[in-house]
Fold each of these.
Amino acid sequence: MRGEGEECTMVNKLLVNVKILFGG
């Protein structure tokens, strides 16, 4: 994964949302 700041934040938010959706 790259650390482009905005992209990294968006990816992190998506991962968190997916985890919550899957009942992480």
Note: The helical segments are 6-21.
Amino acid sequence: MASSRRCPRVKQNYTYDGLDRLATRNSAPFTYAGLEKEPATD
């Protein structure tokens, strides 16, 4: 017999910088090395 459980939906909030790169996810900042497209930290 299968059981089910309800999980609240996780809502993610994103902001972007002037170069259209991800700047924050749920208030956690991303940093970049210069003009690189890939984040140096996440």
Note: Residues 7 and 24 are 24 Å apart (CA to CA).
Amino acid sequence: MNMRRSMSMPSYRGYNIIDWHIYTRLRSLWENESEWWSREERRDFVRWIPRARITERENSIFNHGLANYMRKNRRSWGHFVILRAMFGASQCARQGWWEVFKRKYERATEDAPPGVVPRDVEEVLQTNQMDCPPIMNIPTMEVEDGHVDEDCRCSWCLEHPAIARRKNELVGQGERGVKSEPQLEYSRGQSLYTGEGESYEDRARRLEREQSVEPEERPDEEEIDETVSELMSQECSLRERMNLASTHLSNTSLREVVIEQGAMVGMLVQLLEKQHKRAERLAAKVEKVKKRMKKKKKKKKNKRYQRDISRKVKRITFAGRVADGYSCT
């Protein structure tokens, strides 16, 4: 049995068009490449998907929580794939952990599509509109070869403005004719985002549809564990967004937080139902084991009783033979 069937892609829980394009890219990677990953890499990938989102506070590789995790903790291929899909391999190559990581995973330097997050990310977050990100593979440009992203405000760009500008001109010329991901049309009830254009009814229908078409089944135990880890990561992100919304007094952000809280409550209800069913199954297994143990114990007791009887019969027979021998003499 394929080990990938023990996990499945979490449903979409983003808030804007960038989140949707990130989720689409990650879903394509999961469907086309995850069968060659190890079980641990697939687990890390699945656990990070709910946090692969872009906000006004976390909109670049220099301030995103996932990138900060990569700088301070264990680095896995499943983590790297998500960062590369979000910000591009060239941005990952400018991180302090890159040299060690590429020695561990030589495939990290292979050609890959540019990151989904656009350069004008702040404007896109305000308008919720952007072009489809290109899907053509490009080389991974490391620091010694020049910088790729223009005006990213990183330390390397500030120290080498002339090289960064020259390399950006070359990259801009090479990006002409790049393919784009096809635009998909969605009718009412199939909205892509949870912003102004999607009503509560649309969101409920979309969540129900996404949860009902998951392609793979998995054991309840692993599904419950993954749901719990997903809720924990989602709760941390929700707490940060709530604090940010309270600071800026944004009604739209507060409404998004309330919507996500409702979704989390629904997930908790489903989780409790699964736990209840799991407890019932475990209770049935315990009863079955108890009955089996009683039968074994009874069977063992009967064998011991039969053995004692046979020993007594042998003793009586031997005593009778001895008595007959004495009487004969």
Note: The radius of gyration is 31 Å.
Amino acid sequence: TETGTVMRHGTGLHLGEKMVITTPDTWKQHFFGFDYTGAALGQANVPNNTTSAFRCNANEKMAGHIGWTINTDATRYDSGTDTEVMGGAKISIRYHLDNSVDIFDEDNEDILFTKDADMDGSVLYLHTFFSTAINAADATVWLRNWEFERFAAAWYGHPEKKYKPNVRYPGATLDGDGRYIRGEKMYPGQEVQWSYDQDVNYTYIGVRSSDDNIWTNNKNVKLGGTQFLLSDSTGWDSTTDYTATNKIFAIRYDAIDYKLKLYNVTVAGVETLVTTALVAEDVNSI
């Protein structure tokens, strides 16, 4: 690429999504932003013609440039506005449901940079700015290798769905059409709550394998009619059906024994344990 080149990624980043990359081992200096405000031709100093930008340096360090604040408590923070050397690091750009944007260290689960100004909810397109000429391979590796994933606390069409895979479901209730997956990972000590008001169709809740072939640890809860059909579920210590209509439930990832546990939490401040998974998770997020 020539000095003054601007390239735009062809895939947009939506609310609740993140774009993930494992960085190359060696870098050439360039800048990233989400818009370009300069001239179509002959623009000097293109990295300054954007409303916000961060820099990837030739020494394999990331740095703020325009409109980003570094997290000085991050594991990979170095000094000033620079990170430590990050060749081969796994990072992501996350677009939160509240319109905020950050750069995330996936290896250490740290926020590296936070964008000072929130976006407006519209689709973002990553732009790359080059202040010096570099070869095409070095220029495009940062555009080609991004992968787009869900991550927010919302429901998404399952990635194996034929129609609208990974698309965030905006409704207050799931429509029962196919499979959905939670975007936000669950860690030990966390839970997901929901109100049960489905008296007709069957619903299954559990943890699936990465290729969506099986329920991990043979574990799923079957809901149908007015009850949790524990007699027809697998992987739990109770086989007694449990009345569920108009109640609030939580599936919790226990932080002590790492087992999933189903609670009735309808009454504020009162928890009733319904059933516990027979096999513990592996401490990692699910």
Note: The CA atoms of residues 195 and 248 lie 4 Å apart.
